[in-house]
Amino acid sequence: MKRAALWDYHVAGAKTLAVKLKQQAEYSVDLKISIIAGASHTTAFPSTAIQGLDWLYGKKTLQ
Reduced to 3 DSSP states, what percent helix, strand and coil does the chain have, rounded to the nearest 5? Predict the structure, then answer.
């Protein structure tokens, strides 16, 4: 499978999983999916770790 096709396959799978999680969770989960262009298996963990830390400790703004 070529890289572009493999990328599309994984992105489609992630989107399908997000839809299923949202359907199952109803109101108890606030789910956000981020597709990072050019990401690979090697960059998945560091990207996820940084996003998680930002979510936990990032600057919050009041509205």
Answer: 65, 0, 35
Q: Which residue has the higher pLDDT, 28 or 57?
A: 57
**Is the pTM above the cut of 0.70?**
no
Whole-number Å distance between alpha carbons of 24 and 42 = 30
Domain of 41? 3-57
Short-list 9, 6, 30, 27, CA closest to 18: 30
Q: Is residue 62 part of a domain?
A: no
| Interatomic CA distance for residues 7 and 39, integer angstroms | 9
